[in-house]
Amino acid sequence: GQNIDQPTEMTATEGAIVQINCTYQTSGFNGLFWYQQHAGEAPTFLSYNVLDGLEEKGRFSSFLSRSKGYSYLLLKELQMKDSASYLCAVRGSSNTGKLIFGQGTTLQVKP
Amino acid sequence: EAEVAQSPRYKITEKSQAVAFWCDPISGHATLYWYRQILGQGPELLVQFQDESVVDDSQLPKDRFSAERLKGVDSTLKIQPAELGDSAMYLCASSLATTGELFFGEGSRLTVL
Fold first, then answer.
1. Which end of chain B lies in a sparser environment, N or C, as judged by fewer CB atoms within 10 Å?
2. Are B104 and A43 a contacting pair at CB < 8 A?
């Protein structure tokens, strides 16, 4: 079967660093996405990893280890506006490019 | 900036009624997706189109849900009859290709009473 696991909730302090983990078991692998979703809004794209290693984009970085079926999203210099749900999504080997989402991690940033 | 358009933004209906949602993807995007997101969960794919053809509807409850993309551009998702458990956010997304990033619309929030 296909399974994507993320912690349900996390809390962090403004200005700090937080790491959100994602583990996956899928039929094949053709890339992993991280999306941010504020309450009541649509998901917005944050990052994409298809090869092992770290991808950095400003305050956000994403890491992938394909052999371990593991990724993390690292958020630095947390701001209050970073309070949102963070969705890990994996594209398997299906020729349709189907994207399967995890349940999301709700991050609360406190002053 | 190009966006995925969806309507209505909010819909309240009674169970057993019919509802329909509309989506207009970003111009030129061949792949269109309908996802359902129940509160507190991640989006679940209902149906995926490549141009006007359905390429994945394995999770679509076909006894009550239907989707079409007749001209390979905009799409309609219909539920008839609606049930209480259908209350959710219905998200439309599009991508340039099946390997590309998904761009989501604002979603249509359905409440079934």
1. N
2. yes
